[in-house]
Amino acid sequence: MPTFGYTLMCEQSGPRELVADAVQAEAAGFDFEIISDHYSPWLEAQGHSPNAWAVLGAVAQATSTVELMTFVTCPTMRYHPAIVAQQAATIGLLSGDRFTLGLGAGENLNEHVIGAGWPPAHIRHEMLIEALHIIGQLFRGNYVTFGGKHFQVDSAKLWDVSRRYPAIAIAVSGEQSCDLAGRFADAMIAVDPDPALGEMFDAAGGIGARRIGQVPICWDPDRDAAVARAHEQFRWFGGGWGVNAELPGPSAFAGATRFVRPEDVAGGIPCGPDLSAVVAAVKPFVDAGFTDIALAQIGGEHQAAFLDFAQAQLLPALRAEFR
């Protein structure tokens, strides 16, 4: 049976609200919690973007059993990989070894803020490979000196890291990233329930490893209100990562999605109170072999009501359907 997770979406809630939501999600019975790591929201209507690592530190102390995961951190531009390793090791200890480090090649939306430009995809993957080497060695408690094409590390060592250092998951969207995940990661992350992704991951060495997916939903007792909210805040989702990774800011996402209609969004995201629609949206991930599926509820101020619904109805229904 797959496990079911909850998304702490930093783009739509402030830090205190995210911690409160994390506590309620654990009490509601979610198996794991993922957190997005952004500098900016995709659309201004979302309205937030606190630092994910600071929030994780608070969540690690406010919860006690639920697994935590970044979904995902880019360890190549805003953060040097040596810093990512230190942050992840610290969260691992604070959480009692409940943390998985989810990594990816990043989005222009977040990484351009340091003023270094936005490299093409093949360079971003070169950078990610170097970052993985650095992070892996630091997790093992080694002194690390590294001279690569993209990164330099001078005699770095993590002084506080668990013997059960964090597992690493890598976000995938195509052949190159699946190959990278199969070679370097303990798990694959994807937002598309494409069985080919798992097949490529397996071919690169990922056989038997976790496959972690995410399903956006917009639960609300009023379907029309849910459709309007999903269109306002999440219409960017249908663009696909090949496009979304290149856009530089909320205004670009607004421009790229100006012709997306509410009914277009509702066609791809379950909206409203219909429990069966959420089950139907999860099924393709289960059929594609995903072992862990996180739900992302759209609308920061609607989390508490959604979590009540998830505890009373949604999680029991999902576990009964996919046991």
Write a concise keyword list for the protein shown above:
single chain; 323 residues; alpha/beta; TIM Barrel; eight-stranded parallel barrel; two-stranded antiparallel ribbon; 13 helices; 10 strands; 45% helix; 16% strand; globular
What's the CATH topology name?
TIM Barrel
- The CATH architecture can be given as Alpha-Beta Barrel
Q: What's the pLDDT, averaged over the residues? A: 97
In the CATH hierarchy, what is the class?
Alpha Beta
- Please state the overall shape, judged from the principal axes of the Cα atoms: globular
- State the end-to-end CA separation: 5 Å
Q: So how many helices?
A: 13
Strand order of the largest sheet: 1-2-3-4-7-8-9-10
Helix content: 40-55%
Topology, number of strands: 10
Strand portion: 15-25%
Low-confidence stretches: none
| Rg estimate, integer Å | 19 Å
CATH superfamily: Luciferase-like domain
Strand count, sense and closure of the main sheet?
Answer: 8 strands, parallel, barrel
Structural class of the secondary elements? alpha/beta
Structure report:
The protein is α/β, with parallel strands linked by helices. The chain has a single domain, classed as TIM Barrel (Alpha-Beta Barrel), CATH 3.20.20. Helices cover 45% and strands 16% of the residues. The chain is built from 13 helices and 10 strands. An 8-stranded parallel β-barrel has the order 1-2-3-4-7-8-9-10, surrounded by 7 helices. Helix 3 packs across helix 5. The longest helix has 19 residues. The relative contact order is 0.15. The mean pLDDT is 97.
